[in-house]
Amino acid sequence: MEPDALTDLARKAYGADALDTMKLTFNLRDARGGAGERQAFRTIISSFANDRHRRPSVQANLENIPFFGRWDDLFVLLDTPLEGEVTKLLLKQLTADLKAVEASTEDFRKDVSLAGKWMPSINTSSKATTKLARKLAKAFGLTPALYRKRLARLRKHINVVETLM
Questions:
Q1: What counts of helices (H) and strands (E) characterise the chain?
Q2: FRET partner for 101 with CA separation of 20 to 30 A, picked from 8, 15, 16, 83?
Q3: Beta-carbon neighbour count of residue 165 at 10 Å?
Q4: DSSP state of 155
């Protein structure tokens, strides 16, 4: 379905029943128990975030986005009015994960989220990814080098397959 047709349909559904539309949108994305449809979810959520009437529903569900999908699903909201809240959520999770890594021992590895896995890398060949990573590093108040080192530490702790390769 074309993105414009999809957002038009989602807006009409939201007008009829906001709660059911949000539930269906998250079921559409649910990677484990739903359809696992990434692009359609991202199209709808970013459209709703840019609409002042629907934005509160997205705002209230920011923490559900990585639960039903992945942490990188939040990136579609970075150029919307919810950008500040998204960066706060990401920074909060990365800070908690780094604290858990510090508290871990050889005998007991504390669990951390997969946020570090899905964060964009600064030293990648993709210019768009590098630009996004630099934007996030700046929003987090980190230098590019410190951002890269913190992600490397998290990725090592959670044994990201790409890092092991």
A1: 10, 0
A2: 83
A3: 5
A4: H
